[in-house]
Design goal:
Elements lengths: L2 H28 L4 H28 L9 H33 L3 H24 L14
Helix pairs in contact: 1-2, 1-4, 2-3, 3-4
Length: about 140
């Protein structure tokens, strides 16, 4: 098992802790009085904060050796791409969070943890087979005259 994979798993574990703690705080103290705040706004805010935390860990710890240009412009560009790729996982997470709340009546934090397990699988498949898909080498012939 490579160090890279261990760092990847650790960053996702930290992200789960961040997401859960922020969601708990928001849904318990700030958005506790409304369904929309409790089950939609709080998970959205916790998701975005978590995405940024995971991105920072990934950018500076997990994939830091792969970054050839380290400036604010590339940092922001990488974050935007990373954030966009995380949205599909978020949509899956929210769909399951709301489904579990409707089916079982669980609290937002319990629904979120269960939904994170399912969306984590979807995210891994997305990253493995779409984002970091092995591409065939393209050979470009240069014609010299």
């Amino acid at each position: 098992m490579s160090i890279q994979y261990i760092k990847f798993v650790a960053s996702r574990f930290i992200g789960t802790l961040v997401d859960t703690m922020i969601l708990w705080g928001l849904s318990s103290y700030i958005f506790s009085s409304s369904y929309i705040g409790h089950y939609l706004v709080a998970p959205t805010i916790s998701f975005e904060i978590t995405v940024f935390a995971i991105f920072l860990l990934s950018h500076y710890r997990v994939w830091s050796k792969r970054k050839s240009i380290k400036n604010i412009k590339t940092f922001i560009a990488h974050f935007v791409i990373f954030n966009i790729s995380c949205v599909s996982g978020f949509i899956v997470k929210m769909a399951f969070l709301l489904l579990f709340e409707k089916l079982f009546g669980w609290d937002a934090v319990c629904c979120n943890l269960t939904a994170l397990l399912i969306s984590g699988i979807v995210y891994f498949v997305h990253v493995e087979f779409i984002v970091h898909k092995k591409r065939p080498a393209i050979i470009v012939a240069v014609n010299k005259m």
